[in-house]
Amino acid sequence: MVTDHVLDAAEPTLRALSDYLVAAARWKRENRDAAKGSPSHLLMTAASRALSVLALADEAGMNRLRATYDPTPTPAPPTNPRQGTTANVPPSPPSPGTGPRR
Q1: Do the beta carbons of residue 52 and residue 59 sit within 8 Å?
Q2: Residue 18 CB: number of other CB atoms within 10 A?
Q3: In which element (H, E) is residue 85 found?
Q4: Per residue in 43-55, pLDDT tens?
Q5: Alpha carbon 63 to chain centroid distance?
Q6: Does the first or last residue of the chain, that is N or C, have fewer Cβ atoms within 10 Å of its Cβ?
Q7: In sequence order, which residues have a C-beta less than 8 Å from that of residue 65 and are 6 or more positions away?
Q8: Apex CA 23: angle with CA 22 and CA 28, to 5°?
Q9: Could you tell me which of 56, 39, 47 has the C-alpha nearest to residue 14?
Q10: What confidence tens digit (pLDDT) does each residue in 11-57 have?
């Protein structure tokens, strides 16, 4: 829970920083043909990694919340009212008039 609060608090700042880095790299117009290790290439790499980390943290937090608050429902087995216990009861036959006509 502490991690979620930290990420929630830091996310707007990190997103703004990432947006700035992307804009700066595009503004220079060096990112298309930028050599590996150039400032433009480094800015684009930093922005991409920052967004990837935030996306992973968000996914992990959502998965944890879903597992805690929205577990997969397990179907309840049918109960036999005569015995008061669970039993394998065959399905009831179809009602007359619902079968195929000849």
Answers
A1: no
A2: 19
A3: strand 85-86
A4: 878 888 888 888 8
A5: 6
A6: C
A7: none
A8: 105
A9: 47
A10: 888 888 888 877 876 766 656 677 888 887 888 788 888 888 888 88
The residue whose two tokens read 């920052």 is 50
- pLDDT of the residue at 100: 57
Q: In angstroms, rounded to a whole number, what is the distance separating the alpha carbons of residues 17 and 10? A: 11
CA distance to 29, 58, 93, per residue, from 77 (Å) = 64, 36, 19
Give the total residue count for the chain.
Answer: 102
Residue 8 CB coordination number (10 Å): 11
Are 30 and 70 in contact, with CB atoms under 8 Å apart?
no
Biggest distance spanned by C-alpha atoms of the chain: 80
Phi-psi region of 8 (alpha: psi -120 to 50; beta: other; left: phi over 0): alpha
Token duo for residue 76: 């309840």
Amino acid at the residue 17: L
